[in-house]
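hey m, so remember when u said the tokens were messed up on ur end? i reran from scratch. heres the input so u can diff it against urs
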Amino acid sequence: MGLRGPGAAPKGGALLVSPRRGQSRTWARRDLPRAERVVRFLESLTVTSGARAGEPFRVRPWQREIIEAWYATDASGRRIVRTGLLTLGRKNGKTTLCAALALAHLLGPETEPRGLIVCAAKDRDQASLLYDEVVAFLRRSPKLLDRVNIKRHAKEIEDLATGSRLLPVSSDAGKAHGLSPSVVIIDELAQWGTGAGRELYDALTTGTGARAEPLTLIISTQGDPGAAGGLMAQLVEYGRAVRAGQIHDPAFSPWIFEAPLEADPWDERVWPLANPALGDFRSLEEMREFAARARAIPGLEATFRRYYLNQAVAAETRWLSLEDWDACAAPHLVAEMRGRAWLGLDLASTRDLTALALVIPDGEAYIVRTEFWVPSAALAERERSDRVPYRQWVGEGWLRVTPGNVTDYGFVEQRVRELAHAYDVVEVGVDPWNARDLIVRLQRDGVPVVEVPQTIRMLAPAAKALERAVLQRQIRHDGNPVMRWCVSNTVCDVDANLNLKPSKVRSTGRIDGVSALVTALARVLAGEVGGWRPL
């Protein structure tokens, strides 16, 4: 069902399909206001995931108010709004609402002949989430499924009754130009950034000009007020002016759920301002748990305020508390470390340090030692620019120098070989960037090297494990001041799902020791055998 090939005819000829059996008044009734038809269509759908999977989709009062504003009509019955903006905290049903409204335009009360519904997101994975949610709704509704052709490989859905199509696009796909959408639904605009993201936004929103009643819906949390969140920040500011009556624009309908910047972020009475579903399908317990964690870990406060309180705050907050890091120092234990070991290696670019982390899980904690290299010719200049005592660290043995003005990887390679002989090294995790030759040589000699791409997907579990271990005093390190400096500099990239990884772009100083440690932990966690996970 719903998977027939191109050109297949619909089983039924009706343009509008009646919703769930047992409803006496359907969304297809023409005497109902347009907004009411949309609400009833959404309530004919079935929740597809979560604790309420299998239950009817119930439009909440706050959602109804938004839909009534977006689908209000003038005296001639034409929809007034051309752009709808909804910004609120995470886990308040944004993606589900996007998918349900997309379906209403594909084959519900808002369908039109040969319409084109575009679900747009930052990348393919996020765009696929929207598409998959639409497909999940269809699979829960046999009558709707009977009238569509789901082209799984092309990721396109065609309504066989009207010829309307739904397709996902992303800023990394490059296929938005030339489209003439009737509806554009934009998910998490604050994450799109500039460049390809802005180009996609412009291509889609300007491509609706040939349609009689085009609609663009932007549903997103707010973002970093800097470059990456600039467009979203501008739209929110414009929306505030519209709401305040400073700008008259009836075609633009903004809905902004946010906690005031001056509010106490830990006061639970503030939280519903950004989370209209809190205590309903948005878990209050989960929010409390993350708030407690963010209150203890400085680097998470900005994440909490951005994604949970929907505040436009900068993300550049130090990730780990130096007080917590210092409390984990145990040089005597590190000096006696023995057992199965994992290494993480971060090779220097032009200005970075080269760092090596040695990690041994001992059943109670991670025993960690870090080592660093810097080219001798750059020592004085780096000391001036970074404002840290490189030469003192060299004299104390915390930092090693290699000849010349770039790090000689031969010294690093030799050190890896020495450690492989001295310890039972399970794996050596290496960022493959700029390290191909070194990896090949080590692997040729039997050193168990594994490439670890520096992506959020690859590093997020290890970053969260390090965060927990530091907070719970389950790290034992040697007190290396170079590593302490790296910890003090580290800022993380955080995605919409709260996955994180150390960011060399956002961080203001060197973070290579932290990168090496997270790389090593990524292999510890991947190895299971001999590994230990903090509680």
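this time it looks ok to me. DSSP finds 18 helices and 17 strands in the chain. if urs says something different then somethings off w ur setup not the seq
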